[in-house]
């Protein structure tokens, strides 16, 4: 008998028919003798629809009230799922965050988890209930409702796995695992049986939409295995787990891409200490987080250029801020473009295996793809290229490292 | 400067445009210098839609989970309204029941209010906020979410008026006050400027759907004046207040009707003590509450007939129970019908003014309407008649007592 955390996303509870299917799966585990804690998201589409309502009222919704609004979808899901479990003859009880003292910071719309009281959950499990918990939400010290950011139900599930010392955390979703590339771009991506936390984080931050990154960070911190699998098919998915157990040599696990990238360049900045810091602290105040940053000398040795990429949703504001900085710092010019994209190759030990890095550049060159900017970490080599080349780049790199690599 | 409680029903917050209109009204009062506490219902249609979802899953939804489900609509309304108030330049803060310790009994779907902590509400009012509170909901001692029954937001508003010692409780709705009869039946009903708590209760229980009866009971207990008025037009409505301030003589304030009535008769019951008690205690166990009860002797002096009316929604179950009782009690027969209706004349002192009661019967007789059963209280004379005659009865009694009565 094990303690299993199962998380079901919005598509899995999109309507009452699907809720009944989830209940069947939950009850199957319960009848096998396991303790089951279920975390659910809002029904698919509901959160988007509520956000739309908020913006019909104001362009600048109060964040406390936005959290109050957006946590209703999960509450609907937990209630309906509990009813469906009862209908199948097992006991169930649903909880909102405030009912299990799921405490977070007060940072509305992006709160961090502080503490979870497991007493009530354990009592209800012992009494034979399936415990159904609303994902995504928390309460702060004033009992104000907070949220963990979009996709935060994954984080709820993994955090519960940690505090309850669960045997397994299963994340059920509409894909059946982590793939070496996006199936919409590459014809024959391979499903990974296992992936390390670090690689999963890099995959996620490089554009693969599978797990909420914070859920992976918490899993890594508490060494919780996450089983990412399909809601619709009963087949094994991908286990996200500690890297050193599975990794012995540098190995590419995936190729990801992101099209929503914009680039800004400040030309001819006087070479003075604190210039770069000024640029990035000003952006940080506006909550704009540059992804790749490149500082380079121009022909005139006393002048520098600084380029950085941001999400296209932030581009407009970032340009406005940079315009002001241009005057203030005495830069010669400013340019920006939104037709760029990022391709990333993910795998532990990449950067220290120069032959792999060099093979990335060779592959892109052979395919007449110009590299505009490069950033490399221990397990991620990313290249900024023109948006029109992005699918070609993913295909070529996947063919090079995955198809031929095994 | 006054403390005003305003309650807006589902049609007033049916969509974001209407929420903005409510915000304008709220902000107008706030800018005049008043403290404003607003109670809102779920957007029109949402609660019905959630109930439908629940019954798609099970014919017997767990009541705790049903309350969990049905309280989400109000949470959406309070969040959107608070955002809309911010957009108009005033501060607002929304609260669910758990955030203001709005404690109730654990009777899910029909909980009773035990206590409300006013500290946080008062603090937020003092800090200049419009305080927006989710109607209909409470929490019990375990922090489980409860509801006060359909229409319970009126009760929330009046209870808050009582504990906050408010200067006025305004209930905004889609009608502009209490009328002497249903405008869909009678051509020229009159709007009442004032009505007593008792008369209002009788109007409500006799079929007029204006205020949740429990809200009127609480208002009477704490002597709170309720101003019932239109969401859409800025005109005075009807004040519900203490009776003895406004009533000096017997006066008819309204004629109401209810079509959803069924009647059951047990014939030839042996005349033994405890027979009637057995019938009604058995029905009570099934939560069936007879409205009008009539016990009469038959030609054989040792046998009685018992007739009673129930809501048509309860008729089927009541017949089933009565079939069993028929055997048990040795009754000669059982009959039931669902094509009956109730017409009621409401007004303080009615029963003791025999000329009024007799005028009711005369009026119905003049219009060839047969009276099947009669019940009379201090302020309510009700007659069970055939359903086909109900509109004619209301028109005739309204013409007699209201049109000619002034």
The total of beta strands of chain A comes to 18
**CATH topology label of the largest domain in chain A:** Carbamate kinase
Q: Going by CATH, what is the homologous superfamily of the largest domain in chain A?
A: Acetylglutamate kinase-like
For the record, the CATH class of the largest domain in chain A is Alpha Beta
How would you summarize what this structure contains?
Two copies of one chain form a homodimer. Chain A has twelve helices and 18 strands.
Structure description:
- The structure is a homodimer of 406-residue chains.
- Chain A is of the alpha/beta class and 406 residues long.
- The first copy, chain A, folds into 2 domains: 3-174, Acetylglutamate kinase-like (Carbamate kinase, 3-Layer(aba) Sandwich), CATH 3.40.1160; 255-403, VC0802-like (2-Layer Sandwich).
- The first copy, chain A, is 36% helix and 27% strand.
- Chain A has helices at residues 16-31, 46-57, 63-70, 72-87, 119-126, 153-163, 197-205, 213-222, 275-285, 312-329, 354-366, 390-403, and strands at residues 3-8, 35-40, 91-95, 103-104, 113-115, 129-134, 137-139, 145-147, 168-173, 194-196, 226-230, 238-241, 254-270, 293-297, 303-311, 333-346, 373-377, 380-386.
- In chain A, the strands form 4 sheets. An 8-stranded mixed sheet of chain A has the order 3-6-2-1-9-11-12-10, sandwiched between helices.
- The model of chain A has no long low-confidence stretch (mean pLDDT 89).
- Chain A binds chain B through residues 16-17, 19-20, 50, 53-54, 56-58, 60-62, 64-66, 68-69, 71-73, 75-76, 78-80, 82-84, 86-87, 92-94, 96, 98-99, 143-145, and chain B through 16-17, 19-20, 50, 53-54, 56-58, 60-62, 64-66, 68-69, 71-73, 75-76, 78-80, 82-84, 86-87, 92-94, 96, 98-99, 143-145.
């Amino acid at each position: 008998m094990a303690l299993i955390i199962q998380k079901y996303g919005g598509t899995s509870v999109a309507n009452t028919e699907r809720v009944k299917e989830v209940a069947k799966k939950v009850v199957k585990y319960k009848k096998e003798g396991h303790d089951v804690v279920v975390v659910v998201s809002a029904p698919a589409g509901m959160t988007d629809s509520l956000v739309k309502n908020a913006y019909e009222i104001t362009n600048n919704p109060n964040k406390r009230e936005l959290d109050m609004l957006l946590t209703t979808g999960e509450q609907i899901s937990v209630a309906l799922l509990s009813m469906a479990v009862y209908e199948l003859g097992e006991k169930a009880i649903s909880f909102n965050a405030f009912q299990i003292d799921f405490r977070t910071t007060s940072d509305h719309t992006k709160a961090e988890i502080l503490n979870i009281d497991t007493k009530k959950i354990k009592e209800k499990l012992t009494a034979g209930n399936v415990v159904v918990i609303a994902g995504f939400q928390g309460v702060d010290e004033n009992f104000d409702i907070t949220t963990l950011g979009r996709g935060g139900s994954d984080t709820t599930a993994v955090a519960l796995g940690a505090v309850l010392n669960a045997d397994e955390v299963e994340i059920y979703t509409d894909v059946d695992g982590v793939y070496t590339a996006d199936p919409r771009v590459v014809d024959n991506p391979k499903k990974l049986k296992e992936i390390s936390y670090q690689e999963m984080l890099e995959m996620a931050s490089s554009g693969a939409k599978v797990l909420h990154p914070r859920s992976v960070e918490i899993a890594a911190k508490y060494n919780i295995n996450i089983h990412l699998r399909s809601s619709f098919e009963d087949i094994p998915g991908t286990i996200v787990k500690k890297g050193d157990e599975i990794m012995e040599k540098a190995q590419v696990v995936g190729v990801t891409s992101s099209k929503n990238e914009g680039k800004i360049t400040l030309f001819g900045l006087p070479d003075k200490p604190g210039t770069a810091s000024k640029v990035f602290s000003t952006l940080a105040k506006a909550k704009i987080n540059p992804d790749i940053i490149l500082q380079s000398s121009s022909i005139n040795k006393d002048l520098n250029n600084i380029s950085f990429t941001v999400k296209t949703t932030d581009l407009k504001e970032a340009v406005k801020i940079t315009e002001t900085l241009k005057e203030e710092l005495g830069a010669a010019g400013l340019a920006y473009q939104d037709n760029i994209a990022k391709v990333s190759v993910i795998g532990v030990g990449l950067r220290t295996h120069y032959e792999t890095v060099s093979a990335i550049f060779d592959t892109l060159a052979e395919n007449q793809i110009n590299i505009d900017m490069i950033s490399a970490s221990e397990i991620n080599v990313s290249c900024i290229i023109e948006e029109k080349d992005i699918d070609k780049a993913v295909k070529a790199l996947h063919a090079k490292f995955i198809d031929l690599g095994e």
